[in-house]
TrEMBL record:
The gene is dapB. The lineage of its organism: Bacteria, Pseudomonadati, Pseudomonadota, Gammaproteobacteria, Alteromonadales. Homotetramer. Keywords: Amino-acid biosynthesis, Cytoplasm, Diaminopimelate biosynthesis, Lysine biosynthesis, NAD, NADP, Oxidoreductase. The keyword Cytoplasm applies. It comes from Shewanella hanedai. Residues 5-128 form the Dihydrodipicolinate reductase N-terminal domain. One of its GO terms (molecular function) is 4-hydroxy-tetrahydrodipicolinate reductase. This is 4-hydroxy-tetrahydrodipicolinate reductase.
Length: 270
């Protein structure tokens, strides 16, 4: 593909938004057509490049997707579940593809996104780091070999500002393991501050969450038996890994038909 992929970024002043702007500048195949931030932000009208500390890109931040309608083909959205639904609805009405990195959707919100994906191409992935998408494969192998007789615990750590818990990635890890073992993820346990009372139920998958400082994102799946345990860990040390994954998803999505895709498909892993 020789032509640049024209993208827009919503939530441009957020932690991921700023990183996405920088990633867009670094990728020769990407053209950043627009940056959108919610109405009322003091950043409206500033230059996106200045915001991300990467010098002038002459892309102003606006509060309206309508103003940017002719400037991009793929929207990259790392905002909030409510905002992402509004943005996906807008994309479905205007025939734009969308890459959704936002996490924390409930079941009915996910169903709405599936419905929009009948009209437009959508990539949705709770974690766009390439390494995490290899992690799903490693988890399947560990679950097949050790899952039936070990206790399974998922531990995740993120920065103090993260809103949802357990993280979308931790839940997806649980889903992959539960599916491999034919178990029901709804019977998992979320320990949180209450901890565990009584003996551990061997059938459940436990989730523990840490929120501290500026941790970018760490996830471990532990398969523990008496006498040995396996721990599979992914650590993200820079948000750039998620942003580069999102750029890869955008340049892949531009050639796809309507449908709901994940990063495994973007990376050719399934
Ligand atoms: P953040 O709070 O720093 O940024 C969110 C941004 O969205 C803010 O700038 C906010 O103003 C903006 N926003 C909210 N509503 C908006 C609207 N209606 N229109 C335009 N902008 C709007 O959060 P963050 O740390 O950047 O994370 C954002 C989301 O991305 C979270 O759900 C997080 O879990 C997720 N995330 C996903 C991945 C991944 O790989 N999929 C990686 C990191 C973070």
């Amino acid at each position: 593909m020789s032509e640049k992929v024209r993208v827009a970024i919503t939530g441009g002043s957020g932690r991921m938004g700023r990183t996405l702007i920088e990633a867009a500048r670094q990728q020769p195949i990407i053209y950043l057509g627009a940056v959108i931030e919610r109405a009322g932000s003091t950043l409206i009208g500033v230059d996106a490049g200045e915001l991300a500390g990467v010098g002038s890109m002459n892309v102003p931040i606006t509060d309206s997707l309508d103003l940017a309608v002719d400037d991009f083909d793929v929207l990259i959205d790392f905002t909030s579940p409510e905002a992402s639904l509004i943005h996906t609805d807008w994309c479905a009405r205007h025939g734009k593809a969308i890459v959704i990195g936002t996490t924390g959707f409930n079941h009915s919100q996910k169903e709405l996104i599936s419905a929009y994906a009948e009209k437009i191409p959508v990539v949705m992935a709770p974690n766009m780091a390439v390494g995490v998408n290899l992690l799903w494969k490693l988890l399947e192998i560990a679950a097949e070999v050790m899952g039936d007789y070990s206790d399974i615990e998922i531990i995740e750590a993120h920065h103090r500002h993260k809103k949802d818990a357990p993280s979308g990635t931790a839940l997806k890890m649980g889903e992959v393991i539960a599916e491999t073992l034919g178990r029901d993820l709804d019977k998992c346990a979320v320990y949180g501050r209450e901890g565990i009372t009584g003996e551990r139920d061997r059938e459940t998958i436990g989730f523990s969450t840490i929120r501290a400082g500026d941790i970018v994102g760490e996830h471990t799946a532990m398969f523990a038996d008496i006498g040995e345990r396996i721990e599979i860990t992914h650590k993200a040390s820079s948000r750039m890994t998620f942003a580069n994954g999102a750029m890869r998803a955008a340049s892949w999505l531009v050639d796809q038909d309507s449908g709901l895709y994940d990063m495994q498909q973007v990376l050719g892993l399934k």
